[in-house]
C-alpha cells in the first residue's frame, strides 16, 4: 500500500495567522513563540523592581503604610478591567502593531487615521520617557551602591552630587543606545537573562528580606496605619495624600501590552495573547504586593528612613530598609549592596528593552511619515539592519528630559508622569473606540465579552483617564521651582504641536497602518 501523504502540505493554518490574513496582513514573522515564552517576556516588561522601588519612599511618605499597601490592591482591581478590555481586542486583532493597529481598525474608516495618529504619538512619548525613568532610577540605585560600598553617609561614604548623578543618567542612556545600535544579538541574549533575573531576584528579595530583618512591624501597623508626612510633603489633605500614595501602584501596573506586540510571533495568538495579558497582570499583582509587604514589614524606624543624616542620606528609602535589615543582623552592608545590585540590574535590563521598543515605534511612525524629518529617522543601518537613527533620536530626547536634574528636585516625578500618561493613555484610544463602535462591525475572537464589553470598557476608560489626571498633580507643596512638576507643561506643549500638525497638514495624507494583502469582496485574500 502506498502512502503519499504530505503532512506539510495539509498542515492546518494557525488560528492567529488565519485571523491576521483576514485583517489584510500576511505572515512575515516566524510564529514560534509559546504561551510560556510570551508570558515570560511580558512579565519581564512589567518589571517588579523598576516600578515599585523608585516611588516606594515618596508614596509611603504621603499617607503611611496602609494607604500604600491597600492602594496596590485597589489599583490592581481596576487594572484588571483595562486588561480584560485589551484582551478582547487582542483576541480579535492579533497583530504586532497592537495599539496602533487596534485604534485604526476599531475607529473605522472615518476616525481610524486620527485614532492611530493619537495612539502612535502617545505610545512614542510614553516609551521615550520610559527610557528616562529607568536611567534615573538606575542612577539613584547606583548612587546608593557607591555610598554603601565606600562606607555609609555616617562613615565618610561618597554620595554622588547632582552633576555626577546626571553623568550616570546620561551614561546609562548612551550605553543602551550603543547596544541597540551595534549589539542586537547580545540584546536577544540579555533579554533571556532579564526574565530569570526578575523572577529569581524577586523571589530572593521577597523571601530573604523579612527573614533577615531583626525587627519587623506588626500586621496592624502595615495594614491599618495612616501617617501623614505634612512636614516633608506639604500635603495636609488626607484624601489628596491617599491619592498621591497610589501613584507607585499606577506607575507599576502597566506594560502588559508587551504580550500584544508579540502576537504575530505567538502560536495560537488569538487565544494565547489574551491569556498572556491577563496572566501578566495577575502575576505582577501578586508579586508586587508581596514585594511591598516585604519592604513595609521590614521597616525599622519610619521617620528615620527620610533622615538626611541616616546611612543612605535619606535619599533612597528601599536602600535604607535593606541596610537596616542586613546591618542589624550581620553588622555590615554587604547583603544590602548585593540586593541593590539585583535591583540595579532590573533597571539596566528594563532600560535596554524600552530603548529597543521606543526605537521601533519611532521607526514605524517615521515609515508612515508621522514624525518631522521622517526620512532621517526611518533609515535602517545597511549592515546591521537596525533603525540606528531612531535609536539615537530617542536617546537624545531622553538626555534632554534629564537635564533639569541639576536644578529641580522632582525630575523623576515629572518623567514618570510623562511616561505613564503617554503609555497608559495609548491604551485609552482603542478601548474607547471599542466601547462606541457598532457591534456589527466587530468580529470577535475566542475571548469575547459579549454584552459586558461596554461596562468593562467604560470602567477601563474612566480609570485610565483618572490615572492620567493624577500624574499631572503637584506632588509637593508649596510649589516652587525646586518642587514644580513640569510634566503638564512638557506634555501640553508636545501634544499641542502634534494636534496642530494633524489639523494643519497630517490629516490630508496620514492613513494609519497599510495592508500588505489585498482582500477581495468575498473576503478572500
Automatic annotation (TrEMBL):
<feature type="transmembrane region" description="Helical">
    <location>
        <begin position="195"/>
        <end position="213"/>
    </location>
</feature>
<dbReference type="InterPro" id="IPR002293">
    <property type="entry name" value="AA/rel_permease1"/>
</dbReference>
<feature type="transmembrane region" description="Helical">
    <location>
        <begin position="277"/>
        <end position="299"/>
    </location>
</feature>
<feature type="transmembrane region" description="Helical">
    <location>
        <begin position="35"/>
        <end position="57"/>
    </location>
</feature>
<keyword id="KW-1133">Transmembrane helix</keyword>
<keyword id="KW-0813">Transport</keyword>
<feature type="transmembrane region" description="Helical">
    <location>
        <begin position="69"/>
        <end position="90"/>
    </location>
</feature>
<feature type="transmembrane region" description="Helical">
    <location>
        <begin position="456"/>
        <end position="477"/>
    </location>
</feature>
<dbReference type="GO" id="GO:0022857">
    <property type="term" value="F:transmembrane transporter activity"/>
</dbReference>
<dbReference type="Pfam" id="PF13520">
    <property type="entry name" value="AA_permease_2"/>
</dbReference>
<feature type="transmembrane region" description="Helical">
    <location>
        <begin position="483"/>
        <end position="504"/>
    </location>
</feature>
<dbReference type="GO" id="GO:0016020">
    <property type="term" value="C:membrane"/>
</dbReference>
<keyword id="KW-0472">Membrane</keyword>
<feature type="transmembrane region" description="Helical">
    <location>
        <begin position="336"/>
        <end position="365"/>
    </location>
</feature>
<feature type="transmembrane region" description="Helical">
    <location>
        <begin position="386"/>
        <end position="406"/>
    </location>
</feature>
<feature type="transmembrane region" description="Helical">
    <location>
        <begin position="163"/>
        <end position="189"/>
    </location>
</feature>
<feature type="transmembrane region" description="Helical">
    <location>
        <begin position="412"/>
        <end position="436"/>
    </location>
</feature>
<protein>
    <recommendedName>
        <fullName>Amino acid permease/ SLC12A domain-containing protein</fullName>
    </recommendedName>
</protein>
<keyword id="KW-0812">Transmembrane</keyword>
Amino acid at each position: 500500500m502506498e502512502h503519499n501523504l504530505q503532512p506539510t502540505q495539509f498542515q492546518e493554518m494557525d488560528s492567529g495567522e488565519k485571523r491576521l490574513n483576514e485583517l489584510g496582513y500576511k505572515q512575515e514573522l516566524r510564529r514560534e513563540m509559546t504561551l510560556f515564552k510570551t508570558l515570560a517576556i511580558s512579565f519581564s516588561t512589567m518589571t517588579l523592581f523598576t516600578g515599585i522601588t523608585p516611588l516606594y519612599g515618596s508614596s509611603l511618605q504621603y499617607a503611611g503604610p496602609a494607604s500604600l499597601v491597600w492602594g496596590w490592591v485597589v489599583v490592581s482591581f481596576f487594572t484588571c478591567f483595562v486588561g480584560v478590555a485589551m484582551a478582547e481586542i487582542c483576541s480579535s486583532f492579533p497583530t504586532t502593531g497592537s495599539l496602533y493597529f487596534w485604534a485604526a481598525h476599531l475607529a473605522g474608516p472615518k476616525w481610524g487615521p486620527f485614532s492611530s495618529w493619537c495612539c502612535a504619538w502617545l505610545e512614542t512619548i510614553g516609551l521615550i520617557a520610559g527610557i528616562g525613568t529607568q536611567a534615573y532610577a538606575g542612577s539613584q540605585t547606583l548612587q546608593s551602591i557607591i555610598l554603601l560600598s565606600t562606607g555609609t553617609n555616617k562613615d565618610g561614604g561618597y554620595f554622588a552630587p547632582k552633576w555626577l548623578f546626571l553623568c550616570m543618567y546620561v551614561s546609562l542612556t548612551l550605553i543602551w543606545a550603543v547596544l541597540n545600535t551595534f549589539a542586537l544579538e547580545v540584546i536577544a541574549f540579555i533579554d533571556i537573562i532579564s526574565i530569570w533575573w526578575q523572577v529569581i531576584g524577586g523571589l530572593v528579595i521577597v523571601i530573604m528580606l523579612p527573614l533577615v530583618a531583626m525587627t519587623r512591624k506588626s500586621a496592624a501597623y502595615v495594614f491599618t496605619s495612616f501617617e501623614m508626612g505634612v512636614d516633608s510633603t506639604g500635603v495636609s489633605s488626607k484624601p489628596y495624600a491617599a491619592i498621591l500614595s497610589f501613584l507607585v501602584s499606577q506607575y507599576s501596573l502597566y506594560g502588559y501590552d508587551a504580550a500584544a506586540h508579540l502576537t504575530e510571533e505567538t502560536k495560537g495568538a488569538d487565544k494565547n495573547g489574551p491569556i498572556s495579558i491577563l496572566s501578566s497582570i495577575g502575576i505582577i499583582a501578586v508579586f508586587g504586593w508581596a514585594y511591598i509587604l516585604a519592604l513595609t514589614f521590614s521597616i525599622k524606624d519610619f521617620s528615620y528612613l527620610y533622615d538626611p543624616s541616616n546611612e543612605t542620606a535619606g535619599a533612597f528609602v528601599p536602600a535604607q530598609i535593606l541596610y537596616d535589615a542586613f546591618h542589624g543582623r550581620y553588622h555590615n552592608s554587604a547583603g544590602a549592596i548585593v540586593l541593590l545590585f539585583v535591583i540595579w540590574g532590573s533597571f539596566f535590563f528594563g532600560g535596554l528593552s524600552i530603548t529597543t521598543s521606543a526605537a521601533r515605534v519611532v521607526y514605524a511612525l517615521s515609515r508612515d511619515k508621522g514624525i518631522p524629518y521622517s526620512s532621517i529617522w526611518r533609515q535602517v543601518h545597511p549592515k546591521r539592519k537596525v533603525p540606528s537613527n531612531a535609536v539615537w533620536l530617542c536617546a537624545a530626547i531622553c538626555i534632554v528630559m534629564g537635564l533639569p536634574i541639576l536644578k529641580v528636585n522632582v525630575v523623576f516625578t515629572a518623567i514618570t508622569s510623562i511616561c505613564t500618561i503617554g503609555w497608559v493613555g495609548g491604551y485609552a484610544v482603542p478601548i474607547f473606540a471599542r466601547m462606541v463602535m457598532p457591534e456589527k462591525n466587530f468580529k470577535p475572537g475566542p475571548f469575547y465579552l459579549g454584552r459586558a464589553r461596554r461596562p468593562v470598557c467604560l470602567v477601563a476608560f474612566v480609570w485610565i483617564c483618572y490615572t492620567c489626571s493624577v500624574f499631572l498633580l503637584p506632588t509637593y507643596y508649596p510649589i516652587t521651582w525646586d518642587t514644580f512638576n513640569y510634566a503638564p507643561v512638557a506634555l501640553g506643549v508636545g501634544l499641542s504641536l502634534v494636534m496642530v500638525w494633524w489639523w494643519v497638514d497630517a490629516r490630508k495624507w496620514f492613513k494609519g497602518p497599510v495592508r500588505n494583502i489585498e482582500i477581495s469582496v468575498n473576503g478572500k485574500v
